[in-house]
Amino acid sequence: MKKVFALVIITASVNLHAVTYTVNHPVVGVIENRFDDVAMYLEKYKIPFEYIAYKDLENPEVYLKYDVIYYPSGIESEINSSIDIRARERRIEAVTFNTEFYRIKDEKISSLLRDFVKSGKTVVCSGYSAKFLNEAFDYFTLYNDFPNMGLYGFTEAIPRNRLSNYIQFRTGTVMNYDGYWVAEKINDGEVLLEAECNTPLGMLKSVSAGRRIFRSGGEAYYVSELGTMEKDRIMRFFTVSVLFDKYSLKMKRLVKAWDQTFLDYAVDRNFSFDNGREFKLDVKKGKNTVYGFFEKGIFQVDIYSSGKKLIYSKNRVAGKFEKTLNSDSDSDIYVKIYSDDNDFDGIVILGTGAGKRIVPYFSKIRIVLAFCVIFVFVRTIIKRRKRYSGTYPEVNSGEQNG
Question: Residue 310 pLDDT > 50, yes or no?
């Protein structure tokens, strides 16, 4: 029995140690477009990507190559810039599309986008490409069943849910044009950015960024055109955290290995121009553990309470990091990291788990031990029955009385 218990403990420890964080970069494609500057941010954050020609979106084989595809605003050719006019003197003789004009039916793009996500991959749509999301997944509920209601004017955006882990402040901007996309809510999804938009119906709350996760593991993100807003922090989320989001699964496995409830997480990347990064994470009343993984570099880690009071600080942290905390209530904590080394460009994963930690896989160990006890008990009974069967000869009651 002692050997069985020792074997279970050793196996659990080996399995826990096997939760590794080897990072493989996703293959990223960006559809050529006229309006958005997604490529500029990918280049800024040193994320390799390839351009995808609009006309290639009809080819299903193109989608097999990528893990993540960006559908920016303005991927279709403009009709008014694709027309050739042939005239003689003051008479127009012919109006034709030039060789650069190409148009794919929206429903075909949406169908291939849907298949891509349902295969477990990720799309990020912005601006007017929201129509492909809506066609593919019934993504939004719209005011008056009409999307292009936004009017020129001031807009204030507020981070929500996952995005608020990275950005905690609201930001104002001026929308420079009429007709931008205004959605009332996301169907079966998570709001990431909520905005007050000027519309013909007055100021309305709108989903300016959102996320939906599907059973396949695929994800579909949306981010609106944010006008003159300073977008570095928001676009960092959509070009760094989104691309490496699936590495949160490794953090979840580690938390569950300790039989804790997985609460919250943040995935980011360390850059040479970072003076420090702050992440907001949820904790529950009672025992909690803060987990961290740093692919490269050495860091100082500071943990603050919801009131921004410093409750823990440690420097020279490299590789994995774990810290147990006791919280008086369900609240937030803030984890700040400062790079203390010149080794940059590594993935950073932070997470929180609720509950006491005893030994790795404690609940599974208890189940295995219970089965072992039952097995030993049944085996002992069977052995005893075999040992005593046939010890006393069978006596004929009639002869005995004869």
Answer: yes
